[in-house]
Amino acid sequence: MQIESDGFILHTRPYKETSFLVDVFSKDHGRIKCIAKGYRSSSRKKISGKLSLFMEYQFLLRGKGELKVISSSEEIGDAVHFGGERLFVGLYLNELLFHFLADYDPCAKIYVKYHELLKLLHSGNSYSPILRRFELLMLDELGYGLVLDSEYESGQPVVMSKNYKYIFGLGVTSILNRSEEGNFFSGEELLGIYNNEFNDLLIDRAARRLLRGVFDFYLEGKQMNSRELYRQYLEGIRNNVSNVRSIK
Q1: pLDDT of 47-98, one tens digit each?
Q2: pTM of the model
Q3: Residue 247 sits in a domain of what CATH number?
Q4: Bridge-partner residues for 172, per DSSP?
Q5: Are 247 and 151 contained in the same domain?
Q6: Strand 48-49 to strand 19-26: parallel, antiparallel, or no bridges (unpaired)?
Q7: Are 153 and 55 found together in one domain?
Q8: Domain range for 8
Q9: For the chain, where are the alpha helices, taking DSSP H only?
Q10: Tens digits of per-residue pLDDT, 181-224?
């Protein structure tokens, strides 16, 4: 069986002496597990192309089983580069897709928005509102959509002036008193998230808190390595600042 499709590399890991096991996010076929034979070799005469994160490729895949062999990988369009905090956002996106996408389940809308978000990260423009919309779209497309405008038990509409708790896997329920920590939200915050008002900093923060909890719930204990890498990155920046101040 032969597959030709545009796609991105989500994850790679070494395999034997000269190869990689690769998870490809394909535009037409969803996630595909592949083997890239010889891509780690210094002499790759039989291999066409290379493998980099965040770069769109045109792949030629072959193989009868579920594990395909990458016959070629040709770059499409301009290279996308970003560093610093934006690099960890890109790694976070890849890790979400790696954990949540099913094999051979096409997700065209997610693919398009993922590509757009990578371009935005490359451009240097503000990305947080688009990232929140991507997370919500991903949940919707994969069957985990959030109902934030009504209570899950009574069906009563969410009211801006009331306080609520979000129960993972179920939905919103009203409460008398709100805690500032955990999955407690005002009606104003929930409706702001529902209406994609992420240019409002308070709504964006509430959405980030809610979505982190939702993804953690469905990950069922699996760790997001990109979060730990980002924490280490921030810690390194703080240490560097402290060292500079001590020198002064």
Answers
A1: 445 689 999 999 999 998 899 999 999 999 887 888 889 999 999 999 999 9
A2: 0.88
A3: 1.20.1440.120
A4: 151, 166
A5: yes
A6: unpaired
A7: no
A8: 2-75
A9: 85-100, 108-123, 128-141, 187-194, 201-219, 225-247
A10: 678 999 999 999 999 999 999 999 999 999 999 999 999 999 99
